[in-house]
Amino acid sequence: MAAGPIRVTVWNEAVHEKTNKTVQEIYPHGIHQAVADGLRENLGEGVRVRTATLDEPEHGLSEKVLAETDVLMWWGHAAHHKVDDAIVERVHKRVLAGMGLVVMHSGHFSKIFKKLMGTTCALKWREAAEMERLWCVDPSHPITEGLPEYIELPHVEMYGELFDIPAPDELIYISWFEGGEVFRSGCCWRRGSGKVFYFRPGHETFPIYYDRNVRKVLSNSVKYVAKKTDTPYGNGAAPNIRTPLNPIRAAHKVDESLHKH
Amino acid sequence: MAAGPIRVTVWNEAVHEKTNKTVQEIYPHGIHQAVADGLRENLGEGVRVRTATLDEPEHGLSEKVLAETDVLMWWGHAAHHKVDDAIVERVHKRVLAGMGLVVMHSGHFSKIFKKLMGTTCALKWREAAEMERLWCVDPSHPITEGLPEYIELPHVEMYGELFDIPAPDELIYISWFEGGEVFRSGCCWRRGSGKVFYFRPGHETFPIYYDRNVRKVLSNSVKYVAKKTDTPYGNGAAPNIRTPLNPIRAAHKVDESLHKH
Amino acid sequence: MAAGPIRVTVWNEAVHEKTNKTVQEIYPHGIHQAVADGLRENLGEGVRVRTATLDEPEHGLSEKVLAETDVLMWWGHAAHHKVDDAIVERVHKRVLAGMGLVVMHSGHFSKIFKKLMGTTCALKWREAAEMERLWCVDPSHPITEGLPEYIELPHVEMYGELFDIPAPDELIYISWFEGGEVFRSGCCWRRGSGKVFYFRPGHETFPIYYDRNVRKVLSNSVKYVAKKTDTPYGNGAAPNIRTPLNPIRAAHKVDESLHKH
Amino acid sequence: MAAGPIRVTVWNEAVHEKTNKTVQEIYPHGIHQAVADGLRENLGEGVRVRTATLDEPEHGLSEKVLAETDVLMWWGHAAHHKVDDAIVERVHKRVLAGMGLVVMHSGHFSKIFKKLMGTTCALKWREAAEMERLWCVDPSHPITEGLPEYIELPHVEMYGELFDIPAPDELIYISWFEGGEVFRSGCCWRRGSGKVFYFRPGHETFPIYYDRNVRKVLSNSVKYVAKKTDTPYGNGAAPNIRTPLNPIRAAHKVDESLHKH
Predict the structure, then answer these.
(1) Which tens digit of pLDDT belongs to each residue from D33-92?
(2) CA dihedral B218, B223, B226, B232 (to 10 degrees)
(3) Backbone angles phi, psi at A143, to 5 degrees
(4) Is the predicted pLDDT of residue A106 greater than 60, yes or no?
């Protein structure tokens, strides 16, 4: 990854913070600020964080902003359908070109996550303030650095299997819920030249983004998915390599009419 | 899988067969018929094959046809953009619900494959009639049953890496090309309750779908990806499980206003 | 897989059945017989089952028996160290050559499983007769055919993460335990030309191998891991391919002295 | 990973350097020194490299040395059988506890690699000084940082599939060989709390460890597999968690006689 600080953009639809009193009390400056604070707390000079929200022009995700973003963090819940398809395309292209993406909690139903996964990303859910315990199942993974073998959260919204995702390339955390469900809560996938991390914890009505361990996982994940310095990735180009790298013995006349992709 | 024969629908855009003389000579009844013949040859009574093409109403892929399809095979090259988005959605939903999908050669750029993968599915290519050798890298896989350690095809269109796909859940064949490239040519992914197999060989201007080994791989793959008898898969439903399976100790009042998905 | 019935050998150390009254009452004919009965119940004519135990000559696993075995099922708990290393080598070689292996419950600490995994296969455990619920996380998998989205077992010995195994090639079931742990309970790996399935449920002092769903999973797994008809797998041979398949331009004199493997 | 430099130990059996003139000319100070130089060249102050060889007491791999090693690099070819089993056990335990391991070329047949893989690790080979081209198939991977889409090596010993390894957790490079074979040449696996990288290029009679790109890959891999600062990994302990984390309703008396692991 680049020599300087990792440039992170924390995106939030920021809807419930405006409409719901409980949420306002827990996240007076918005969930994005709590998440941003957690990154600064753990990564200090190693990170430069900005935020962006749905209401800004281009949802705060202009070409310029994305070009200066090594990792995009995504929070959405109530307003997935209000995110402009053109912006989703733009983010998608940037992820494939190497920008890291961290999707949090209800972001599982965001357009960008569903587009990258190719599945419905559906799950079961229940809000009963039950207990969650996230068990580490991959102690070799840098996202688990400095963390205990499990993380406990006293009150959460439950997400249960089947979580309709492609099998993760790396499965790092599995959640246990008091009410009887399990969930693949910390998952990585590689897409193009980019890396995607999904992390389940979070909810507007619980102070989860102030939790020390949750902040540590998110901070570790930012380092893990951060864009590499360079990549030969072609981003959708399908080049015709007319001159072979090694000699070909066959004599053959190409029928060009076929190749009008 | 179901007790009776596997019900296969071979789909073909069937464009080049109408416009190109070389293609007409090699595949006088269309690529779909050559593929269908290969399945019947290998699977006999174990399979019931029909075909469908772009020009038919609903591209031949009505709800009824798909409901009676255990495995859909996909050939497209020149007319990916002419496939109706609503049909793509329909096929996507069926795959997630368990219908197997076998994507052949230039189908890598089809809408349905790109939607299931979440990536550009781009690759390098060259048409120089060079030699291809597919090496088996997973001899445990049922798709390799009855096949030698490698398959040779004397004249092919080359596809080269980077093939922009998610890392396959199962990588079965890797191709060597005379001109210097390699390619992940036999790949499986699981999506929802369905299985997807991509197989590289094929091209309109080479008689590849008459090759004994290619036909064997495709026939094996039909058995491998065939729809299971049943599945509890929810296909996008996100049920609220109000009553927990096990007791929860927390007293908590849910703020219903948040949950208007 | 072969045309005839799948030939299964159920292996059991059969120690606790002789020494413990509770175990004798639950499994009067031994755990191996209960497992064998479950396979016959589900697979009928599709399977031919025999059993083998530690006390037999060569532990009942002669070359002849293994040569006639498509799937070996493994139960051990108290006497892993009494299994002869030469027999372990023999079984290992057979698995790599294509024989399926189903390892049950405490078999996680068997020599053959540890040898195939390359890790300690350690885990947490507790015997408190707590409840277990196995959640399906891959509804596309043939091992889940005909099974509900979860399986409940009222009283079990708990196994908890970290389960020190290589990341499974296919993760099919995750267990929830009443006491607060989770576990990757249904896992597949490919090794050489063979397939390995680990299934957690089972214990000598609970009647788990009479459970309808457990028997269904085991029966499905037998079909899934069964040996293919043939394989080009070399089983450890490292052949020197002196004559290249394609021409090489370099003039080079090999220094043979290096190649005394 | 730790704040200071990564502590690397490059191990070499160092046999052919003593017996073969060609090897002496190419690697006058031994392969281990050429590898060590490549790391220093790329990582500078970020790495502290020492070497160890077969002839030293405990093969240079005392408990103390391993305790001070974040990454062990392994070269062996002619003398795998001379490596003491006790040392192999020691290295195995350290890898599971988090020490990174980079296995080079003919190290595929080393005891430690086979023990971690659980398979024969066999492959095809030919020494004809043919050309190799390594294609990157995962541009998202940090091991590919700063590297082009392919790496060419003019003269190599060929390794061909089937490479009898478990499917890699991460497949990064696939080799094309002039003589017609392919090979999975850059592969990662996670084992316990440790990471393993296998990289194919190298041979005593070719100056491959002076190649700029090969050195870059090895240097990147050292950063990738380096030991984390800490881990809750238990290294084979199987603790009995008598007190559950959450309440269990069942009344049950444990039969202690069963639990004499």
Answers:
(1) 999 999 999 999 999 999 999 999 999 999 999 999 999 999 999 999 999 999 999 999
(2) -140
(3) -70, -20
(4) yes
Can you read off the two tokens belonging to residue D184? 């999975």
The answer to whether the predicted template modeling score (pTM) of the entire model surpasses 0.95 is yes
Quickly tell me which residue has 């369905």 as its tokens: B194
| Whole-number pLDDT of residue C251 | 72
Q: According to the model, what pLDDT value does residue B261 have?
A: 46
Q: Taking Cα atoms as reference points, which of D84, D170, D100 lies closest to residue B168?
A: D170
* Structure confidence at residue B1 (pLDDT): 46
C-alpha–C-alpha distance, residues B90 and B107, integer Å: 17
What stretch of H or E contains C127? strand C124-136
Chain C 20-79, residues with CB within 8 Å of chain D CB atoms: 20, 22-23, 77-78
Tokens of B175: 């191709």
Residues from chain C contacting residue B190 (CB–CB below 8 Å): 138, 140-141
What is the tens place of the pLDDT at every residue in A168-199?
Answer: 999 999 999 999 999 999 999 999 999 999 99
Q: How far is A206 from chain D (nearest CA, A)?
A: 21
A16-66 pLDDT tens trace: 889 889 899 999 999 999 999 999 999 999 999 999 999 999 999 999 999
Quick one: three-class SS letters along chain D? CCCCCEEEEEEECCCHHHHCHHHHHHCCCCHHHHHHHHHHHHHHHHEEEEEEECCCHHHHCCHHHHHCCCEEEEECCCCHHHCCHHHHHHHHHHHHCCCEEEEEHHHHHCHHHHHHHCCCCCCEEEEEEEEEEEEECCCCCHHHCCCCCEEEEEEEEEEECCCCCCCCCEEEEEEEECCCCEEEEEEEEEECCEEEEEECCCCCCCCHHHCHHHHHHHHHHHHHHCCCCCCCCCCCCCCECCCCCCCCCCCCCCCHHHCCC
Which pLDDT band, with edges at 50, 70 and 90, does B230 fall under? Answer: confident
Report the sign of the C-alpha dihedral through residues B82, B83, B86, B88, in that order.
negative
d(CA A10, CA B192): 30
E-strand stretches of chain A: 6-12, 47-53, 71-75, 100-104, 124-136, 150-160, 170-177, 182-191, 194-199
Distance in angstroms (rounded) separating the CA atoms of residues A168 and C167: 11
- Closest Cβ–Cβ partner in D131, D139, D146 for A233: D139
DSSP codes joined into one string, C2-70: -SS-EEEEEEE---HHHH-HHHHHH-TT-HHHHHHHHHHHHHGGGEEEEEEETTSGGGG--HHHHHT-S
Chain A, chain B: beta-carbon pairs less than 8 Å apart: 203
Contacts of residue D91, Cβ cutoff 8 Å, sequence gap at least 6: D61, D66, D72, D99, D101, D112
Q: Is B122 on the interface with D (CB under 8 A)?
A: no
Round to whole Å and give the CA distance between D123 and D79. 18
The tens digit of pLDDT for each residue in C110-156 reads: 999 999 999 999 999 999 999 999 999 999 999 999 999 999 999 99
* Rounded CA separation A205/A208 (Å): 9
Nearest chain A Cα distance for residue B203, angstroms: 10
- By C-alpha distance, the chain D residue nearest C18 is D258
* Closest residue on chain A to B162 (Cα): A233
The Cβ of residue A208 has, within 10 Å, a number of other Cβ atoms equal to 24
- pLDDT over 90 percentage in chain A: 82
